[in-house]
Predict the 3D structure of the following.
Amino acid sequence: MLRYTFSQSLDLANALEKASAALETSGKYQWGHMGSCNCGFLAKEITGRSSEELHSLSMRKSGDWSDQLRDYCPSSGLPMDEIIERMEKAGLHVTSLISLERLSDEKILRRIPSDRKPLKYNSAKDAALYMLTWSKMIKEELVDRIELPLNLISSSEFENNKVLS
């Protein structure tokens, strides 16, 4: 996975959380609909486009999200390729989007409790859990990347765990 800036990663984590919440509450999930499926819900958060608009734009090219992601060409000028490019600029990679559509990224799946597995790729509840888990993973990676000079922290604060609370 590529490294992105702090703000890109944080924006992506927040978009994943919003998409997860929308999946949980909308009641408009349709895995076969390009604007109301796993990738569609995230695309709505990142692009600000409606599910109907995403679906309509996707019909100018054949295939579902996975097919269109595999055929992605940033210079095609096709609307879906522009959507995918915008998602890439938000910190996503084509392979991570293909994994989102099938809920199949092993790194994310390892973090999901065993009593919730196996995930069904065409379940709104499972897609919401996957996105929320992915968001938490990104935020944890961001925290791990933060480096504070130890001379800014007094030893008594560190020993009393005041730094972490």
Summary: The chain has a mean pLDDT of 88.
